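User: I'm preparing a small set of examples for a lab meeting where we compare how different chains pack in three dimensions. I only have the primary sequence for this one, and I'd like the structure in C-alpha cell form so I can line it up with the others. Please keep the answer compact; I'll paste it straight into my notes.
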Amino acid sequence: MLVPIDGSEPADKALDKACELAEKCNADVKILNVVDRPLLYLGTYPGTMYPRHYVMDTVGYVPPFTMPTWAGTFSEKLEDNNKHMLERAREKAEKEHPDVEISTELVRGRPANKIIEISRNGDFDLIVMGSRGFGGVEELVLGSVSHGVTNKAECPVLIVK
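Assistant: Understood. Below is the C-alpha cell output for the 161-residue chain.
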C-alpha cells in the first residue's frame, strides 16, 4: 500500500487506516511525502542580477539566478522538515502496528503527479490517502491532490476522512 502524507490530520488518519488494513491483509506500507516546489514571486529581490521584466524580455524565461537568495535555503529547510515528518510518522506507525513492514520515501515534484508515478512504478495494489491536506489556494484553483490521484491512478484509491 502507498500512503502519501503531508502532516495533516486526514493524512495521519489515512496512515492509521492503511496500517490496520495491512495487518489484516499481511501487506507492506510505504509512506510517501512529495516536496512541492514553493511558489515564489518572480520580481527583483536583493541578491538578484536583473529585474523580472529585463530577464523576461531578453531571454524569454526566468533563469535560476533571478530567484531570491533565500529561496535555496527555504527549499532545503522544507525538505528537512518533511524528512522529520516522515520519520515521526514511520515511528508512530511501527509502534502502533509492529507487525506491519513500513518504509518511507521523500521525492520532489507535483504531489498528484508523483503519487501516480510512484504507484505505477512500485506496482502498488492500493493508495490510501487523506481527503484533504494542506493544499490551500491550490486546492481551490486546481483541485485537490486526492481528487487528481483518484482520477488518474491505475490502482484503487481509498480516501480517508
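A couple of notes for your slides: The longest helix spans residues 71-96. DSSP finds six helices and five strands in the chain.

User: Perfect, thanks.
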